[in-house]
Amino acid sequence: MHTPPQLTELKARLREIDDLEMAAALLNWDQTTYMPPGGAAARGRQLATLGRIIHEKRIDPAIGRLLDALRSYEESLPPDSPDAALIRVTRRDYERAMRVPAAFTAELYEHTAASYDVWSRARPANDFMAVLPYLERTLDLSRRFAEFFPGYEHIADPLIDMADYGMRAATIKQVFAELRQGLIPLVEQITVQPPVDDSCLRQFFPEAQQWAFGVEVITALGYDFSRGRQDKTLHPFMTKFSLNDVRITTRVDEYDLGSALFSTIHEAGHAMYEQGIAQAFEGTPLASGTSAGMHESQSRLWENIVGRSLPFWEYFYPRLQATFPDQLGNVPLETFYRAINKVQRSLIRTEADEVTYNLHVILRFDLELALLEGTLAVRDLPEAWRERYRSDLGVAPPDDRDGVLQDVHWYGGLIGGAFQGYTLGNIMSVQLFDAALRDHPDIPQQIGSGRFDTLREWMREHVYRHGRALDADDILRRATGRSLDVQPYLAYLWRKYG
Amino acid sequence: MHTPPQLTELKARLREIDDLEMAAALLNWDQTTYMPPGGAAARGRQLATLGRIIHEKRIDPAIGRLLDALRSYEESLPPDSPDAALIRVTRRDYERAMRVPAAFTAELYEHTAASYDVWSRARPANDFMAVLPYLERTLDLSRRFAEFFPGYEHIADPLIDMADYGMRAATIKQVFAELRQGLIPLVEQITVQPPVDDSCLRQFFPEAQQWAFGVEVITALGYDFSRGRQDKTLHPFMTKFSLNDVRITTRVDEYDLGSALFSTIHEAGHAMYEQGIAQAFEGTPLASGTSAGMHESQSRLWENIVGRSLPFWEYFYPRLQATFPDQLGNVPLETFYRAINKVQRSLIRTEADEVTYNLHVILRFDLELALLEGTLAVRDLPEAWRERYRSDLGVAPPDDRDGVLQDVHWYGGLIGGAFQGYTLGNIMSVQLFDAALRDHPDIPQQIGSGRFDTLREWMREHVYRHGRALDADDILRRATGRSLDVQPYLAYLWRKYG
């Protein structure tokens, strides 16, 4: 069967939308990397304009007509075929976009840029009051967004569904409850032990060498610098301007060796996912990771399952020692390995260990639900944050800088759906790694000799290349034989830390 | 009289166009500064899409209707009022844009991105054959562009008019003839002398210190880094994403102290012009320098009349010596001053001295006319280039890298109108500087003590703030009492070099 002309026209329209989205992504990237302070006001307007035009093009009734005309062609195709997937995902996006008025999208873009700008100054100044009115408006916008999708069970559901298609608040609450049940005894077992000495990581490590070592590591993992680059930002992230220009950012703390290194590996994990998507999907809605959770499964897999494993450091530690001979020359591998895997009750999510990390996520998820439900006022958020840290993690932030201001998410986007993906990703990362191990039991040995291609190519084959052509649950079931399952993840944590 | 609603609507439409143009400018900036090689193909498509949408919006018949409806309001205003200028310039742009089909603009954007990409690799490889087919297509596009404006006297006129409104090939030929007549005896007088020793500039000057010194200089001149930044590119340029985000780029040669320094001052001159435009014009077609020539008058004024003057270096030379004590500690100011003003028959336009610089420009202008007229084939351009260098400058490039491949203009834009602005700018720069001196005879003394505010504020008052509200000729006549006049420029050159 030949490609129907409607599909050709649909693809041209989708490419135009993609071009504009990529332009907007570059404006965002520049805003957080190189833009001088004077540029902020105009950048907000520019992003608002692009957002409005993108939205207008997404909801162009011509797309609806093309999708209708393509229904019989779609039904004639195997559901797995790229065209069927493209039409299916485009229809899903179109039906979603149709519900959100263009004026709302423009308002949201402009507000988000302004809010990000205020936050980027408020966080170092420890000034929650500066962001308060912005955050209140963000909550209002988030509720209004959810209201465009009536019939939800929980007001967070439409927001969660945007990030993790098919997920709902009720499901996640259940998953998180099962996880918490398994985590609490593990955290208790670990934290009654004397604390691990991680002072080897707290020496002075000059930025340039840290940067170079991080680049060496992610190049070995398979991040392709000819199709990407790394820059500095306040909050590390991955973004892309095409499948062949996938960029990452990081930050460097010269007195904490783990901070930049693991964030670099984390973002490279995201980026390898995007770089690994089938080139045929370029310029279409399929050319993207399939969900927030699946994306995190890859960042967390490379950061933790690989990057904090013993075989990985059997290979890389001598190289790290050669980079920092004065600081690490006399530190044995085992001391270093224990230091980078130190479990402790701490304040900062992005620097938390694997075990307690999920407690940071679960409390944010709960706070998001409470804000959206209206049972928690934005004004009371800092205190609620401290309270949950005290009860869940046994520590409370001395200020908002390291408390409620620490993550960019609520200040650069909506409230709701922002955090659950991290823990869903942790859970999936172990399911996927276990499946790769079943196919290639020698992966740990390969990692120990600096070879990452078998694991990476397995991920490319089973996860990356599909882009959004398969949903997260499809990928999991095909690759591992099961849907989302907390138990392998708990088993991994108990094995490593119990 | 109240603002008519049509003007409010017009401004909203112009702002939208401006937002998209600024987004496209950022995509271009990124392409030449930070984009990894893999990004090139998609970037070309993205720029083509933005170019097409911008063009569609520029030629929206609604703009024509608004302009018609505003005619009586316009006639009721003093011609100098901002609204009158806005309507006048918008009408001029609209009538021009209406002549160029959207598909042509998209083709041009895409071709330009591809051509730039090829050139950026072909130049270091000295590979003219690689760019030949691109340049042939560029010439074809340039001719087709001119054909959209029938009734021209010379096929280059529509292209020249785009860059220097009101100028034509015939006028420029006349101006250049008068200039050449004055220049030739000066060049001959100088080049019979023994050559100046500029070896003090040819030592090793590490990039980081060169960069820092350049930043110190342009900060003192008045370039505002809180509304701009400087990055590295192959070919230095100025670009902007709003009046409060005006960026410059430079390149550094560690064995040529003058290269980065004077290009930095040159681009800062362009940028101060844009940073000095009235903020009320932001987001409108008035928020831009008024012509290529007027823009160059500012870059060349700061680079040459100020930056290569003795008072300037009486102030800065001790600072430069402190930055490079080993290299310059024993070099007297006079030796350095003579070195940076060395006149010689040379190959590279951007590094040419003030006197011979115009010969580089005039020959390019003549080659552009010949290409457009069809009397010179693109294939024969390298040889024609060598021939003209031999006859006009007495030197011939050993290869195309330092010959016909040296300037980005023809490889990143159209042929025609690309170069005359440099020499028009030189001429105007002296007219404007002389007028500033008449108002403030102590400017040279101020420069000698590191004060640039009187000169800069004079330029802001008489040139910068007007943006495109005044044409180049208006600015010249109001600020200096005369239209374009070669004689003050020749007098300046004879005074300084004769």
TrEMBL record, chains A, B:
Keyword rRNA-binding: no
EC category name: hydrolase
A molecular function GO annotation: metal ion binding
Cofactor note text: Binds 1 zinc ion per subunit.
Active site: 267
Catalytic reactions on record: Release of a C-terminal amino acid with broad specificity, except for -Pro
Keywords carried by this UniProt record: Carboxypeptidase, Hydrolase, Metal-binding, Metalloprotease, Protease, Zinc
Pfam families, per database record: Peptidase_M32
EC number in record: 3.4.17.19
GO BP terms, alphabetized: proteolysis
Cofactor (UniProt): Zn(2+)
Binding site for Zn(2+): 266, 270, 296
Entry similarity comment: Belongs to the peptidase M32 family.
Function of the molecule: Broad specificity carboxypetidase that releases amino acids sequentially from the C-terminus, including neutral, aromatic, polar and basic residues.
Protein's UniProt name: Metal-dependent carboxypeptidase
Organism (species): Roseiflexus castenholzii (strain DSM 13941 / HLO8)
